[in-house]
Amino acid sequence: MKKVYSRPKSLKKVPMHYCPGCGHSIIHRLIAELLDEMSLRETAICVPPAGCAVLAYNYLDIDMVEAPHGRATAVATGIKRVRPDNMVFSYQGDGDLAAIGTAETLHTANRGELISVIFVNNAIYGMTGGQMAPTTLAGQITTTSPSGRNTKTEGPPIRVCELLSTLENTTYLERVAVNSPANIKKTKKAIKKAFQHQQKKTGFSLVEILSSCPTNWKMDPLKSCRWIDEIMVKEFPLGVIKEVKC
Amino acid sequence: MNKQLMYGTYAIGEAAIQAGCTCYFGYPITPQNELPEYMSRRLLEVPGGVFIQAESELAAINMVLGASVAGARVMTSSSSPGISLKQEGISFLAGSELPAVIVNIVRGGPGLGNIAPAQSDYFQATRGGGHGDYKTIVLAPASVQEMADLTFLAFDLSDQYRMPALILGDGMLGQIMEPVVIPARKKKKLPEKDYILTGARGRPARLVKSLILDTRQMEDHNWKLVRKFQRVKQNETRWESFLLEDAEMVVIAYGTAARIAKGSINRLKKEDPDIKIGMIRPITLSPFPEKIIRETAGKVSDFFVFEMSTGQMVEDVKLSLEGRGTVHFYGRPGGVSPTPAEVARIMARHYPQSKSTGKK
């Protein structure tokens, strides 16, 4: 019988700790598949975030270094400048990338560092227990916005791709989601493109992935997937936000 | 290289280049801007040289972390408020056991303080500075030549022990010009960097981190760092002794304060050749040269600590003496550099009366 599905070599043979319905495990697998398919496992260096995905190093079988919360792109900058031939990417959540690490994100993008950012947007702080994130939707209830996010005092959610698109040296910015088989396929394509942009040294690349956090959203996994389609994409429209031909 | 007249900051920069530093990341702050400026020029001439003016001190120290884990010799520099911002990264470097050289050209504080030379960051430098149980190597130059020499040493020690090394200068040492010879690098046998990230080709994947969720493992890691620092203490403690042989009073001062104090001692001796004041100048502030101080207490009972702060190193002197001897302290915080004459006056006042020759 023909083998159609197997564990990517870049993914370790261990069970993941992520909650049922969490998007991280899907995204990890997509990255691992691409590292195999694009023969990048031996050159890849990943900078994981603080947050649930800090333990990505337990799953991805590649060189990794942990960064302080928010500083992943600064660390990645240091690595890439020393090792320009390696595939350097950071894996960051919304709080990491768009709150505590906003300055690092913005300036790494502005310098056009030849790195790729896998940005997982689940509109909430996952590991710390469901607090309001910079991408939390208007009116969304979290443990620190008990009456729902008030955009007058807490600001509206930040659209990272759109924000970065104004910077000259960003060359590939796409927003995708991992809430359906079709969207997962698109996500894989987008990450591949980001890696290709890095290989071709066009500029800074970032893929924003809308991903569910059923535990902190207090929804079951299926409802979480629907919530992305029905609510989240209205605030965060999917698609290529910016692409400069490579 | 021939003897030449150089700024302290330039001497650090050139010594770093000669020591094989290929990466510098920093953010402007007075009084050390000449160092990043120098590095921005010099690193253009170094193959693979990287200079980035970062968006913040936080970003700079984390670029340092990235370059270090990628295997480069890397340096950053700043002055007091900027070094405070770097502390998170320094803690991560220490926890992840990564080498890096960090230069602090100290200015008056707290807060924004001023831009004059001070020694008020001693506690921050010698107690780790950031969160968690760790220490760093802290070197205190007292001349432009020593700024160069200790820069070579900082890179070697940092690589040898896989821990951050700090150079604690001050606004005066950074800004003065003195004759200096930058020697060629003497290549020391250092452990192979078998932890750096290069991509997992032909070897298992590597992981560099400071997160250790298991408390027993975290405890082991903490003790490991302690044992490592004990080795540093045993092997690398450095100080300069000055006229210690027959001293009746011993001055303890470092950096610019030690230069002023040396001037004061010479001045007092000129006035009265029988006056016997010696000096111990710690060159490593961390590890602190506690043994020589304790041993000296067997022969001398009066110690005079002079610092350009309200009194920070004086605590280490007292800890070293373990109750022996009398410790006199004179401090000038806030960026004030007193003249040798001023300090000599205070010194003479504390010179043991019974030993005084009575001439004046």
Question: What descriptive keywords fit this protein?
Answer:
heterodimer; A: 246 residues; alpha/beta; Rossmann fold; seven-stranded mixed sheet; two-stranded antiparallel ribbon; 9 strands; 37% helix; B: 360 residues; 2 domains; five-stranded mixed sheet; globular
Give your account of this protein's structure.
The complex is a heterodimer of chains A (246) and B (360). Chain A is an alpha/beta fold. Helices cover 37% and strands 18% of the residues of chain A. The longest helix of chain A has 19 residues, at 181-199. Chain A is globular. By secondary structure, chain B is α/β, with parallel strands linked by helices. Helices cover 40% and strands 20% of the residues of chain B. A seven-stranded mixed β-sheet of chain B has the order 3-2-4-5-7-6-13, with helices on both faces. Chain B has a five-stranded mixed β-sheet with strand order 10-12-11-14-15, sandwiched between helices. In chain B, helix 2 (34-42) links the parallel strand 2 (21-26) and strand 3. The mean pLDDT of chain B is 96. The chains are: A alpha/beta (246), B alpha/beta (360). Chains A and B meet through strand 1, strand 2, helix 2 and helix 4 of A and strand 2, helix 3, helix 4 and strand 9 of B.
